[in-house]
Write a structure and sequence with these properties.
It is a single chain. The relative contact order is 0.16. The protein has a domain of 247 residues. It is built from 16 helices and no strands. α2 packs parallel to α7 and α10 runs antiparallel to α11. The protein is an all-alpha fold.
């Protein structure tokens, strides 16, 4: 089931997020790497669940949650422990319970943006997306397994429609609130990935061309970026996923357009294993960064608090403390810490999943 090219896609998604945080005025579209992760999660988790949906219900769920916990919790709570040590405790209870995304919406719905954004790097503002992932892991397996097989695709399609309705209603309620951080809104990306996985598992996509899907997704994304540079300040839409040029009515469909673009790319890479793009993304530098992308994403933003240290170090070494040098220092530090996390913590613990195989099919 493993596809190395999807690790390469994870690498590109992280690089986009990193670039967007470094230069949001220029590479604002790099932040869509988060949504690529959402589509990937929806697709891959659905494939895992479908591969084991004939096993005992509770035994299968138990193994699923154990394996997810082994992959997700160690690095995440290690980061929270580090934040506790340096005194970044304002939002720790929300991070620890994977509810920070709800707080993001609540504070901004009350107009308390400054309170949320104070020390935005050190307080782990990016961890709202981890809340989304965990809420998805918690709820989705029940939703999938408790629905009759014939009803899964219709329910997923209906849920996508419900997500669109929630997004429009919340935007009309308060367009300056970070409503895009809520699962019913950004969950649309996850649901499109899940729908593609279900259709693929049933062979309904066999007649489609993976190559055409990939390039259609790439061209669609590029076109949406070209016409959709946000008119609102970047900080006010970081979780919106609706770049609204001049607040045009048709822009309400742009999130769905992005979701379809990313879904086409993900499925195209999944199904087209021998393409040139798959070969490129399967090269070791891409797959390694993709393999450690979880750790890269977790630690990259908190390290911004060390920028004064980087400046002082560069000046002491007689090097220019330019923007490019600072960004390079941030990236290399992020890479070093994430690599150590994978080698010392995530990798060894991830190997424990072998002790928890899914129950055999009756």
């Amino acid at each position: 089931m493993y596809r190395p090219q999807l690790d390469g896609l994870r690498c590109l998604a992280f690089l986009g997020v990193f670039a967007a945080h470094c230069r949001p005025d220029v590479v604002w579209w790099g932040g869509f790497g988060v949504q690529i992760f959402f589509v990937l999660s929806g697709f891959l988790i659905t494939r895992i669940l479908l591969d084991h949906d004939t096993g005992p219900f509770w035994a299968t769920l138990r193994i699923f949650y154990i394996r997810r916990g082994l992959r997700v919790f160690p690095a995440y709570y290690l980061l929270l422990a580090a934040m506790l040590l340096i005194g970044a405790t304002r939002f720790l209870p929300w991070h620890a319970t994977y509810t920070f995304n709800m707080l993001c919406w609540h504070l901004t719905d009350q107009g308390r943006h400054a309170e949320l954004l104070a020390n935005w790097h050190g307080e782990g503002l990016h961890l709202w997306s981890m809340s989304i992932e965990e809420q998805f892991y918690l709820l989705f397996p029940f939703a999938l397994y408790l629905v009759p097989r014939k009803g899964r695709i219709p329910l997923t399609a209906l849920s996508i429609g419900g997500s669109v309705v929630c997004r429009v209603l919340l935007d009309r309620h308060n367009p300056q609130a970070y409503y895009g951080a809520l699962l019913p809104v950004c969950g649309e990306y996850i649901l499109w990935g899940s729908l593609a996985a279900q259709l693929d598992a049933q062979g309904r996509l066999d007649r489609l061309s993976p190559r055409l899907a990939r390039w259609t997704g790439i061209v669609l994304f590029a076109g949406l970026v070209f016409i959709g540079k946000p008119s609102r300040p970047t900080g006010a839409i970081f979780a919106q996923f609706i770049p609204v040029p001049n607040d045009a009515w048709w822009a309400y469909g742009m999130q769905t357009g992005y979701a379809l673009a990313f879904t086409a790319v993900v499925w195209g890479l999944w199904a087209g294993r021998t393409s040139g793009l798959s070969w490129l993304l399967s090269r070791p530098p891409f797959t390694y960064l993709g393999k450690i992308s979880y750790g890269l994403y977790l630690v990259h933003l908190p390290l911004w608090g060390a920028v004064p240290f980087y400046v002082k170090t560069l000046e002491s070494a007689g090097l220019p403390a330019s923007e490019g040098m600072i960004f390079a220092s941030l990236f290399l530090s992020t890479l070093a810490i994430a690599s150590a996390s994978w080698r010392l913590v995530e990798g060894p613990i991830n190997e424990l999943k072998r002790r928890f195989p899914y129950p055999p099919t009756p």
